[in-house]
Amino acid sequence: RVSHTIQTMNNIVIRDYLPSDKDSAMQCFRSNVPDFFSASDEAWFESALDEPDGPSFVLIHEGSVIGFGGYEVSSTYNSAVLVFGQIHANWHGKGLGKKLLEHRINHLKTNAQPTRYLVVDTILKVAPFYVKHGFEIVAHWKEGFRDGADRIDLRLVLL
After folding, report:
1. What confidence tens digit (pLDDT) does each residue in 41-91 have?
2. Which residues contact 136 (CB under 8 A, 6 or more apart)?
3. pTM of the predicted model as reported, rounded to 2 decimal places
4. Among residues 143, 128, 22, which one has the least CA distance to residue 84?
């Protein structure tokens, strides 16, 4: 596996997630509870860190993890799924989510088997971010998440 590092803005680096990033990634996740993630998803996130199903990346600023996100490619369906994209709450609104999304899309296009779709499920509050970046809403599930939040399914056509 080739390691990928990108220099972005203001001394922020995007690189492959390492097990040594786990505690910081967990802090990043907790900073987004309850506004963007449910506390009940913490164990699921931790298992995704311990046993990832695809590549995962961190945003680093001055040695600290300030963002995390990955993707998984389905061997059954003609799609890849974005997983756990997040920016530490202290860093919201600075364009870093866009940088992380672009990094994951570019990595997928250059390193994974070609897939027609890139999909993501998220909450109503986050869906406009993905729509702004070319995704289309394909489903809206009332109370579709275990915590009762609405689930929005989106996809981006890659091929």
Report:
1. 999 999 999 999 999 999 999 999 999 999 999 988 899 999 999 999 999
2. 154, 155, 156
3. 0.90
4. 22
